[in-house]
Amino acid sequence: MANDNRELLEALSGMLVQALKASIGPAVEQVSAELRNTGENIPAPLPKAPSFAMHEYRANEGTSVADYFNRFEWALQLSKIPEIQYADYARVHMGAELNTSLKFLVAPKQPQEVPYSEMRRILVAHWDQKKNKFVESIKFRTIVQQRDESIAQYVLRLKQGSANCEYDNFLDRMLIVQMLHGLAERDICDEIVAKNPSTFQEALDVALALEATRNIARDINVGWLTNEPSCACNGCGGPHLRSECRFRSAKCNNCHKKGHIAKVCKSGKSNHHISQQDISSPSGSIDQVQRLNRIHNIPSSEKKMIDVKIDGKSLKMELDTGAPCAIVSEATLKSIKPHFTLQTSDRQFSSYTGHRISCI
């Protein structure tokens, strides 16, 4: 009975399939034929426009119009924009400042009538006025290293300042001269002069190496300062611990007690005849060569000034035991001797950087 029912269902299904094919088959074939015929006339899809992005020109950014168009053309080439479309892209992306200028500069023409090359030439000629090389040279000679400015930053400003000076073949030498003139650290300047570099890059390499060494030494000195004792040694007055003092067994020439020297003696006695042995090291207890951790610069406020009398008139002068002679200005000389006659001097003077100082 089950087999008879299955055979009956299969027969009914076959009859339904045949009926459906007979009813909708011609319609499906007709629609397919129409689609094939109309597909030949459908136009091909347009290629997608290449992506492009470029910010507009702003005069307050400090860049020239020529530089802007150079970067604009690089962006167009990277995006594979055809040259025939350069003008259209420029008018869309270059911003209101340049578009407004172009509108009035090409009148009575319309901006869209101007080709790209002419558009660029007109805008560059209007915005990028030629700078006076003498004025730029004067500005260049005033560029000096600022406080907390690295040498690399200083050199970048130098190169920017020399861009319109038209030094040509003398650019390398002028950069060296101005870098030496404007360096804040004069010892770096002296070191570069001593090495006599032949190119600016050689001079810059020396300056950068010395600056790096100075920065490392400064960091090390900061570490030393944090490890130093907060008070002076009571055996000699030096900046170290009492346990490290080399005068622990020295005999004081003031109170004749051991353990300190007369320089820091707290006894009521005073002995003005202090021997050299007491202010130096006792033989056998200290080496001839001692370690020097730091050298401190003496601030200008601590200069030793003394009163000197010249022809009965008092004059305050700086005490400098290392100078072979003292120099006064012409105005100071007139205040001391109103009527004087200068004689020719055979002495020649120079500053610590080697510059000649003329004497009257």
Structure write-up:
- A hairpin with a 5-residue loop joins strand 3 and strand 4 (356-357).
- By secondary structure, this protein is mainly alpha-helical.
- Helix 9 packs across helix 10 (200-227).
- Among the domains are: 65-128, no CATH class; 133-225; 229-264, no CATH class.
- It has a two-stranded antiparallel sheet with strand order 1-2. A two-stranded antiparallel ribbon has the order 3-4.
- The longest helix has 38 residues, at 2-39.
- Helix content is 45%, strand content 4%.
- This is CCHC-type domain-containing protein.
How are the SSEs ordered, and which strands pair?
Layout: H1 2-39, H2 65-78, H3 86-93, H4 96-105, H5 116-127, H6 133-140, H7 151-161, H8 171-182, H9 186-195, H10 200-227, H11 276-279, E1 305-310, E2 313-318, H12 330-336, E3 349-350, E4 356-357
**Estimated radius of gyration:** 45 Å
Q: What strand order characterises the main sheet?
A: 1-2
Listing every helix as H and every strand as E from the N terminus to the C terminus, the arrangement reads HHHHHHHHHHHEEHEE
* Distance between the ends: 143 Å
Low-confidence stretches: 271-296
Average pLDDT metric: 78
Shape: elongated
Helix content: 40-55%
Taken as a percent bin, the fraction of beta residues is: under 5%
Query: How many strand segments?
Result: 4
Largest sheet: 2 strands, antiparallel
Tally of DSSP helical segments:
12
The secondary-structure class comes to mainly alpha
